[in-house]
């Protein structure tokens, strides 16, 4: 083997080893980053859930005790999602539904809506949005108390025509300089209450304790909501 061939071979081997090491480092970094992202997402979810259903109001793991839901126009979901079940002594005290407003000013607005057994709203929290800073972003509880206006509302104490912003003849305030954003949120929250009303029996009965000793002990219940 001549000198040139040896040099080329050494270079090829060196490049190959470099590529393998680089690929390994990238894969390891991605794995660590993914784990950190998953942890931060879970942490944020837990914080939002506990804002709506404090620890003294349930005795189960909210993130683990879930009910799978199929796609729903009322919830604004495009794929299957999960509802979180707040329980005490194995009885569902509140259901936390994923709620998406597809028609925000700058795109979709992702929320969670907590509803008590009797259909009364415990509260709403915005998880993700792209609304205008200083205007539409006041739907966040850390920016204003606007979102707190939903607490205590239900289909029984708030008429069908009232589920609009005041500009449209409803009872909910619009935000200064922003009407599209609150309009979308009000509509979505109303949809989540309607979803709960239509599926109340399945949501509560599926989540409540069962006397069937053959029942599964898993915390994640199979989807039964149609």
What do the pLDDT scores average to? 85
Broad shape = elongated
Question: How far apart are the termini?
Answer: 73 Å
What is the strand tally? 6
**Biggest sheet overview:** 6 strands, mixed
Question: How many helices does DSSP assign?
Answer: 2
Low-confidence spans = 210-224
Q: What is the element string, with H for helices and E for strands?
A: HEEEEEHE
Secondary structure class reads alpha+beta
Q: Give Rg in angstroms.
A: 24 Å
Q: TL;DR of this structure?
A:
The chain is of the alpha+beta class and 226 residues long. It has a domain at 53-208. Helices cover 35% and strands 20% of the residues.
Structure description:
The radius of gyration is 24 Å and the shape is elongated. The protein has 2 helices and 6 strands; from the N terminus they run αβββββαβ. The protein has a domain at 53-208. With 226 residues, it is α+β, with helices and mostly antiparallel strands. The chain has helices at 3-52, 180-207, and strands at residues 66-69, 81-88, 91-104, 107-116, 121-128, 220-221. The protein has a 6-stranded mixed beta sheet with strand order 5-4-3-2-1-6.
Keywords:
226 residues, alpha+beta, 6 strands, elongated
Layout of strands and helices, then pairs:
Elements (H helix, E strand, L loop, with lengths): L2 H50 L13 E4 L11 E8 L2 E14 L2 E10 L4 E8 L51 H28 L12 E2 L5
Parallel strand pairs: 1-6
Antiparallel strand pairs: 1-2, 2-3, 3-4, 4-5
Keywords: Cell inner membrane, Cell membrane, Electron transport, Flavoprotein, FMN, Membrane, Phosphoprotein, Translocase, Transmembrane, Transmembrane helix, Transport
EC number: 7.-.-.-
GO molecular function: electron transfer activity; FMN binding
């Amino acid at each position: 083997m001549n000198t040139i061939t040896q040099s080329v071979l050494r270079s090829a081997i060196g490049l190959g080893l470099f590529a393998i090491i680089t690929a390994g480092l990238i894969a390891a970094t991605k794995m660590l980053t993914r784990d950190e992202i998953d942890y931060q997402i879970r942490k944020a979810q837990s914080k939002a859930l506990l804002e709506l259903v404090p620890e003294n109001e349930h005795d189960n793991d909210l993130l683990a005790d879930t009910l799978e839901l199929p796609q729903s126009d009322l919830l604004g979901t495009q794929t299957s999602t999960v509802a979180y079940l707040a329980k005490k002594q194995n009885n569902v005290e509140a259901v936390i539904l994923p709620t998406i407003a597809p028609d925000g000013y700058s795109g979709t607005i992702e929320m969670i809506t907590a509803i008590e057994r009797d259909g009364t709203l415990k509260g709403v929290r915005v998880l993700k949005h792209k609304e205008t800073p200083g205007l539409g972003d006041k739907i966040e509880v850390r920016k204003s108390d606007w979102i707190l206006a939903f607490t205590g509302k239900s289909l029984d104490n708030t008429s069908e025509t009232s589920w609009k912003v005041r500009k449209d003849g409803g009872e909910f305030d619009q935000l200064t300089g922003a009407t599209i954003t609150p309009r979308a949120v009000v509509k979505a929250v109303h949809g989540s209450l309607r979803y709960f009303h239509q599926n109340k029996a399945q949501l509560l009965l599926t989540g409540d304790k069962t006397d069937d000793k053959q029942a599964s002990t898993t915390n994640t219940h199979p989807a039964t909501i149609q």
